[in-house]
């Protein structure tokens, strides 16, 4: 049974105006930790697929538990929502909306949050989190804005051909730190890009990243390409990046 304290979550809704996105705006959800005080400063986790991370990943409930019971330093979570009909176009590096989404994220969404909430601005205090293509776009955000992002939580990252080509073209990825997991049952998953073996994709990405100096925590375990698997792994992923008080 879930402790009632974990369910007392503070999650605010925000809308960011955008000159890059065709819709002209994007919705966010912002988790504030227990004991939130705007006079303090907080590490921050930026999640792709914001609605899914909160609803299916239960990341706010998990954050409450880690802060209240595990002594993890309080942190803020920002979930960036996505219209699923445009998700591949925005998250995949060969998508027609990808460049605009990346610019929105780094040049509009981030400044909006930093102007309104006391989040820390050191790249070591920011984490990008994503599942599947959300992991992919997090990697490309860190490549585009190396002065802003360097830490990536990648849950079954969809590092398809174009992403791996971009990885291969890099000479030094020593600034990156990734927490990568993939499920051993993800060997034949149907995607917009065809049937994919995510285990092989992530093994190949790990090799390319390691050869270029990135710091990795990499694990393969039993799991399918779905939130039932990722939700169970989010606590360890958060604890990897966030420090105890």
Describe the fold and architecture.
The protein is an alpha/beta fold. It has one domain: Alpha/Beta hydrolase fold, catalytic domain (Rossmann fold). 39% of the residues lie in helices and 23% in strands. It contains nine helices and ten strands. The strands form two sheets. An eight-stranded mixed sheet has the order 1-2-4-3-5-6-7-10, sandwiched between helices. It has a two-stranded antiparallel sheet with strand order 8-9. Strand 8 and strand 9 form a beta hairpin.
Write the layout of secondary structure elements.
Layout: H1 4-7, E1 10-17, E2 25-32, E3 44-47, H2 50-55, H3 59-69, E4 76-80, H4 87-91, H5 98-116, E5 126-131, H6 133-144, E6 151-155, H7 161-169, E7 177-183, E8 189-191, E9 194-196, H8 198-211, E10 215-221, H9 227-241
Parallel strand pairs: 3-4, 3-5, 5-6, 6-7, 7-10
Antiparallel strand pairs: 1-2, 2-4, 8-9
Organism: Paenibacillus radicis
Protein name: Enterochelin esterase
InterPro entries: AB_hydrolase_fold (IPR029058), Esterase-like (IPR000801), Mycobacterial_A85_antigen (IPR050583)
């Amino acid at each position: 049974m879930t402790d009632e304290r974990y369910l007392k979550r503070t999650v605010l809704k925000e809308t960011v105006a955008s000159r890059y996105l065709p819709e002209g705006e994007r919705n966010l959800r912002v988790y504030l930790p227990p004991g939130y005080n705007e006079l303090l400063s907080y590490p921050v986790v930026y999640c792709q697929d914001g609605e899914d991370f909160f609803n299916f990943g239960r990341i706010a409930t998990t954050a409450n538990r880690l802060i209240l019971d595990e002594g993890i330093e309080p942190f803020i979570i920002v979930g960036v929502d996505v219209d699923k009909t445009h998700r591949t176009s925005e998250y995949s590096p060969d998508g027609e909306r990808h460049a605009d989404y990346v610019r929105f994220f780094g040049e509009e969404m981030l400044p909006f949050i930093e102007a309104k909430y006391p989040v820390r601005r050191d790249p070591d205090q920011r984490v990008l989190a994503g599942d599947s293509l959300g992991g992919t776009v997090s990697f490309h955000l860190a490549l585009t804005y190396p002065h802003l992002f360097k830490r990536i939580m990648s849950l079954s990252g969809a590092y398809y051909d174009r992403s791996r080509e971009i990885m291969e073209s890099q000479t030094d990825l020593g600034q990156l730190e990734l927490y990568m997991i993939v499920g051993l049952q993800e060997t034949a998953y149907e995607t917009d890009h065809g049937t994919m073996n995510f285990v092989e994709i992530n093994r190949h990405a790990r090799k390319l990243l390691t050869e270029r100096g990135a710091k990795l925590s990499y694990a393969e375990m039993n799991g399918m390409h779905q939130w039932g698997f990722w939700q169970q792994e989010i606590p360890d992923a958060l604890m990897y990046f966030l420090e105890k008080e």
